[in-house]
Amino acid sequence: MAMSLMNRAISRTETVGAFRVSINLLRNFSAAPAASPPSSENPSSDSNKPKRRKKKNLIEVAQFLPNWGIGYHMAKAHWNGISYEITKINLYKDGRHGKAWGIVHKDGLRAAEAPKKISGVHKRCWKYIPNLSKAAPATNAADVQAT
């Protein structure tokens, strides 16, 4: 009988002790944010910092041009002197993805005669090149000599 009374007393003190510890933890966690002063070095307070604009894929650049950019020049942002003159675009149903074909131009001059499928259409690095777009048709050397 004495053992059962001791066990009851121990279990009560353990229960009360665990309850006190949990109350103290709650008190510490609830008081910690209120007690700390607001820091000026908080990274989330940089609300005046401009947000970075999401770059566009070829389809998103072409959708704002007349006739979905057919006949206009586009290039990846890191290309120097290389662009594609868009000849054909196949859109998927969502209107933001698809396939595109074009003629390669190097330094503003045609590098190929036949259009080829453009790779990396969905990558977010495309830009429109305004000074090469819808230029006058190129004249052949034979046409220049004949006149």
Sequence of secondary-structure elements: HHEEEEEEH
The residue fraction in helices comes out at 25-40%
Low-confidence stretches: 135-147
Structural class: alpha+beta
How far apart, in Å, are the first and last alpha carbons? 125 Å
Mean pLDDT: 77
Strand portion? 15-25%
Number of strands: 6
Query: What composes the largest sheet?
Result: 6 strands, antiparallel
Tally of DSSP helical segments: 3
Spatial shape: rod-shaped
Rounded Rg: 34 Å
Protein name: Mitochondrial 28S ribosomal protein S34
Pfam families: MRP-S34 (PF16053)
GO molecular function, one term: structural constituent of ribosome
Summarize the structure.
The protein has three helices and six strands, in the order ααββββββα. It is an alpha+beta fold.
Pick out its properties.
single chain, 147 residues, alpha+beta, six-stranded antiparallel β-sheet, 31% helix, disordered C terminus, structural constituent of ribosome, Mitochondrial 28S ribosomal protein S34
Structure description:
This protein has helices at 2-35, 58-62, 141-146; strands at residues 73-76, 82-91, 98-106, 109-110, 116-117, 126-129. It has 147 residues and is α+β, with helices and mostly antiparallel strands. The relative contact order is 0.13. Strands 1, 2, 3, 4, 5 and 6 form a 6-stranded antiparallel β-sheet that branches. It has a domain at 70-128. β1 (73-76) and β2 form a beta hairpin. GO terms for molecular function: structural constituent of ribosome. Residues 32-47 have a biased composition (Low complexity). Residues 32-56 are annotated as: Disordered.
